[in-house]
Amino acid sequence: CWQLAAVAWIIGLVESVVQTPSTLRLPFCPHHQVDDFVCEVPALIRLSCGDTTYNEIQMAVASVFILVVPLSLILVSYGAIARAVLRINSAKGRRKAFGTCSSHLIVVTLFYSSVIAVYLQPKNPYARERGKFFGLFYAVGTPSLNPLIYTLRNKDVKRAFRRLLGKEVDPS
């Protein structure tokens, strides 16, 4: 665990050390303001009055290493898990195994789809507005939904949720 955490911290540190100076050296127009919920590299690149080609290439390359590679590894591991689960003889066992994986897969899908929408978006006005929504969603929405998604796997929570919605639940 500590090695995985160390790799994540080191990659984040290297990424910030590489991207921050080149982004802050961009010429910014004095009348522009950050039109986003968070002040990240894509929002700062959109503020620049100069050529941002280098920064966009740098961000695309970094996105491959920080987004696409981990997502690919996750999807490959889920492929191996799916193959193993499909070898389970009982339908009940397969359903239980897929149910266990489904929560994580939902969270991974929500997070990576919104992050990719922010960092790998084209430069146009529609993408800019959509990027604000997805930026807010991956920064606030996914971490907020994460406990809810995992909590709904608990039978007692499901029962209480159904009661809250006014649906009677069999007490067994």
Write a structural description:
The protein has helices at residues 2-24, 41-47, 53-86, 91-119, 125-151, 155-164. It is an all-alpha fold and 172 residues long. Helix 1 (2-24) runs antiparallel to helix 3 (53-86), helix 3 runs antiparallel to helix 4 (91-119) and helix 4 (91-119) runs antiparallel to helix 5 (125-151). The longest helix is centred in the middle third of the chain and has 34 residues, at 53-86. Residues 1-150 form the G-protein coupled receptors family 1 profile domain. One of its GO terms (biological process) is G protein-coupled receptor signaling pathway. Keywords: Cell membrane, Membrane, Receptor, Sensory transduction, Signal, Transducer, Transmembrane, Transmembrane helix.
Outline of this structure?
By secondary structure, the chain is an all-alpha fold.
